């Protein structure tokens, strides 16, 4: 027996529905992007453990084994005071907002650094053997340094 093909009865799709679907998908994508970025910027952390230092962020993340950290040279810094030459000056990649400096930056002294600073008075610099330091502002700089030196 031979099959017979039957097309659907004539129909039309309104351009409005096509545009509504496309716009809806674009808005859902933008919402997802902004939510992900917003969440990520609020969850930038530095973890100190027996293995070393782990820098976690939305765009940048690195692990520094203890052997690559110059723990003896790690110290607190005041980026608005005596240590202003360590202030991030030129963004190489990352984000600079009023209260958050994050990413790869060139410091005023010309050195590049991996930076996550939210409080310029609570900053800590951790030199590495990688050719650039890590500059962070943990909530408790003294506890951070003590954990690093254990």
What does this structure look like?
This protein has 150 residues and is an alpha+beta fold. The chain is elongated. Helices cover 24% and strands 31% of the residues. The strands form 2 sheets. Strands 4-8-9-7-6-5 form a 6-stranded mixed β-sheet, covered by helices on one side. The chain has a 3-stranded antiparallel β-sheet with strand order 1-2-3, with helices on one face. The N and C termini lie far apart (84 Å). It has 2 helices and 9 strands, in the order αβββββββββα.
SS summary, helix count: 2
Order of helices and strands: HEEEEEEEEEH
Overall morphology:
elongated
Number of domains: 1
Q: Keyphrases for this structure?
A:
single chain; alpha+beta; 9 strands; elongated
List the helices and strands and how they pair.
Layout lengths: L14 H27 L3 E5 L2 E5 L4 E5 L9 E3 L10 E9 L4 E7 L4 E6 L5 E4 L7 E3 L4 H9 L1
Parallel strand pairs: 7-9
Antiparallel strand pairs: 1-2, 2-3, 4-8, 5-6, 6-7, 8-9
Structure, briefly:
The chain has 150 residues and is an alpha+beta fold. It has helices at residues 15-41, 141-149, and strands at 45-49, 52-56, 61-65, 75-77, 88-96, 101-107, 112-117, 123-126, 134-136.
């Amino acid at each position: 027996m031979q099959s017979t093909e039957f097309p659907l009865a004539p129909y039309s799709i309104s351009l409005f529905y096509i545009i509504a679907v496309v716009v809806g998908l674009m808005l859902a994508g933008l919402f997802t992007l902004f939510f992900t970025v917003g969440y990520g910027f609020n969850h930038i952390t530095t973890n100190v453990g027996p293995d070393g230092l782990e820098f976690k962020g939305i765009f940048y993340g690195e692990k520094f084994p203890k052997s690559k950290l110059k723990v003896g040279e790690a110290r607190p810094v005041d980026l608005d005071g005596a240590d202003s030459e360590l202030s991030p000056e030129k963004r190489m990649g990352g984000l600079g907002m009023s209260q958050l400096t994050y990413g790869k930056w060139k410091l005023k002294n010309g050195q590049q650094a991996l930076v996550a600073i939210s409080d310029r008075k609570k900053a800590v610099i951790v030199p590495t053997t990688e050719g650039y330091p890590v500059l962070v502002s943990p909530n408790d700089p003294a506890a951070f340094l003590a954990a690093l030196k254990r």
